Amino acid sequence: MSPAAAIRDAAIAAAVAFGLFAMLVGLRTEIGPQSNLILRQRWAAVAILCAIVFLGRLLITWWLGRRALRPTTAAGPWTARLQQAGRLFAPAMLALALLLPVLPGVGRYELDVGILVLTYVMLGWGLNIVVGLAGLLDLGYVAFYAIGAYSYAIFAQYFGLSFWICLPIAGILAAFWGVLLGFPVLRLRGDYLAIVTLAFGEIIRVVLLNWTELTGGPNGISGIPRPTFFGLPFNASGDPDSFAGFFGLEPSPSHRVIFLYYLIFALALLTNWVTLRLRRQPLGRAWEALREDEIACRALGINITTTKLTAFALGAMFGGFAGAFFATRQAFISPESFTFIESAIILAIVVLGGLGSQVGVAVAALVMIGGFEVFRGLDEWRMLVFGGAMVVIMVLRPRGLVGTRTPSIALGKRRAISGDLVGEGHG
Amino acid sequence: MSGKPPPRASGATPMLEVDRVSAGYGAVQALSEVSLHVDPGEIVTLIGANGAGKSTLLMTVCGAPRPRGGRILLAGEDITGQPTHAIMRRGVAQSPEGRRIFPRMTVQENLLMGAEALVKGDPAPQMEQAFALFPRLKERLSQRGGTLSGGEQQMLAIGRALMSKPRLLLLDEPSLGLAPLVVKQIFDAIRLLNQQTGLTVLLVEQNANLALRLAHRGYVLVNGRITMEGPGRALLARPEIRDAYLGGGHG
Ligand SMILES: Nc1ncnc2c1ncn2[C@@H]1O[C@H](COP(=O)(O)OP(=O)(O)O)[C@@H](O)[C@H]1O
Ligand SMILES: [Mg+2]
């Protein structure tokens, strides 16, 4: 790139930065001495920021060349390595997850983070069915998480049903609502679908907030029964009918945490297993075909209605399972836990993971949720760091971390096929 | 230069009969009382300018949009108003306008998707049939659909449609945007397929010259109405057709 072009390029970047920072940084309202609002102008700060952007852009283009910033869907060095190590990578992660509670140096805090990460892995895998496989952009996934959580809380509280009975109920109810959402949006795609699902998520939250008699409104539901080990409660009593007493162990609060850890681990594995199985069956292939081209699906005699509804129902069911788990783990739920930002985070995990890749979703959940925890010290800067990181990843790897898909049907050798060269298909 | 049209036994049921069908989208009336029929073993072409309603007719045969009036019979059975997947299951296959292959799936997966929802049993024989027609597909088996050339994509779309062992093949503008040599290859394949297996084909085309040479019979659609019909060669010879669709002069 010629120097002139590089400078022009940097100037454009600075202009964009100015557009953003002029309002965000340049103008600031403050409470004045007479507690009136005054407008403070900070053009110096804006100038400094724009200068940084200008110089940074210039340095990047000169030192790295423009190629370095060009988005690529080609198998980059680290995807290639991931693909090579792919056979080992997933089992290694699995083994690590399995052994985490007994690893030295893993305490209560690490396990709690592990539970959180696995919850999002499960939610990511659940949403992956809808968004990654069937290609239906769902911005209201948190609704099903909420329905699962409230189903468990209400059935356990009012009817005294055990976790193992409530879990399938929560899943079925969430799936039912998934179908209910699915019907009106059957004819919608893309942005329109996104808007309706977004509204659905908000409606559910607002209903939970206002149906005070059933849900407790903004106060939520507390004292939700904790899970039992197939009927044996976790407590410090040491009674023979408690978990520790029954197995002759020293009562310890970590038993419950470890149990919860393995519970969500098993639920996440179930989600993964079902998804992997279905991907190789007609239903899963119909989902993928639907993602690729709905009109072609119709022409091939695929029943679009059932294909879409099953995707919504299954995705919702796993969201519901995760919600029931969330409720029993927290023992307290309120509508605050089910805001749009949750949907956004889960969707970000699916997109970052590479729409459709199971391993990618797991890695993305680990990076995002684990990262959130690691950078807790940064306080409000955390969001900025993560926003930035996501932008960088999506610029460099628009198809997500693992943007490859293995053919689900192949005679003879199986080959991973990466996104290289494939635009959106020139047809 | 197709062979003689298969002799039509008087009273034999047509494979497809479209009887005074009207259809449209909202306020747009795209088809007005269109009637046509395709006999078993025939290649029939429907030619017309852009926006004449050709694609709408094919889609209406497949069930969406639903006809606003008239009847559609497949081998004598009324299929009017049935859902698309039910109609396709009765032995209709379509290569849609713009080919619409699955870009991220391999050629092989694309082909198998053609059999997926419609036929039980081993898809290998149809696969072999597709390879025999278009050897290029066999060479590209594990390549992604989106990376194929336009001509290869059209071959794939036709091959995919054949995977369901259809009785009636609907082709929507297979020549769209392709080089003349590739178009010839594809039209030759359609002719061969019809001669060897007796497959019934309804071909929608803007390329009137080639389509009328290939087809046994043709219909001309103007603004949603059939204005002319007759044997392909005869239509080709008519001055109105030459002026409107062949740009006069050559031929
Ligand atoms: N989905 C649609 N919604 C509304 N109008 C449509 C739609 N598809 C086609 N049309 C209209 O119907 C008429 C026929 O279109 P079409 O069947 O695609 O023509 P052709 O295939 O002959 O080019 C056109 O006027 C077109 O604008
Ligand atoms: Mg058309």
From TrEMBL, chain A:
Keywords: Cell membrane, Membrane, Transmembrane, Transmembrane helix
Subcellular location: Cell membrane
Recorded GO CC terms: plasma membrane
Tagged with keyword Membrane: yes
InterPro entries per UniProt: ABC_transp_permease (IPR001851), LivHM_N (IPR021807), LivM-like (IPR043428)
Pfam families, per database record: BPD_transp_2, DUF3382
One MF annotation (Gene Ontology) recorded for this entry: branched-chain amino acid transmembrane transporter activity
Membrane topology: Multi-pass membrane protein
KW Membrane (keyword) present: yes
Residues covered by the High-affinity branched-chain amino acid transport system permease LivHM N-terminal domain: 6-99
Main location (coarse class): membrane
Transmembrane segment boundaries: 12-31, 43-65, 85-103, 115-137, 149-180, 192-211, 258-276, 309-332, 344-369, 381-398
NCBIfam families recorded: PRK11301.1 (NF008450)
Official protein name in the record: High-affinity branched-chain amino acid ABC transporter permease LivM
Organism in which the protein naturally occurs: Roseicella aquatilis
UniProtKB/TrEMBL annotation, chain B:
One GO process term, biological-process aspect: L-amino acid transport
Domain of life of the native organism: Bacteria
CDD domains, alphabetized: ABC_TM1139_LivF_branched
An annotated Gene Ontology molecular function: ATP binding
PROSITE patterns (UniProt xref): ABC_TRANSPORTER_1, ABC_TRANSPORTER_2
SUPFAM superfamilies: P-loop containing nucleoside triphosphate hydrolases (SSF52540)
InterPro entries: AAA+_ATPase, ABC_transporter-like_ATP-bd, ABC_transporter-like_CS, BCAA_Transport_ATP-bd_LivF, P-loop_NTPase
Keyword Nucleotide-binding: yes
Keywords: Amino-acid transport, ATP-binding, Nucleotide-binding, Transport
Annotated ranges, domain ABC transporter: 16-248
Keyword Cell membrane in record: no
Gene3D superfamilies referenced in this protein's UniProt entry, alphabetically: P-loop containing nucleotide triphosphate hydrolases
Recorded coiled-coil stretches: none
Protein family: Belongs to the ABC transporter superfamily.
Protein name per its UniProtKB record: ABC transporter ATP-binding protein
Species this chain originates from: Roseicella aquatilis
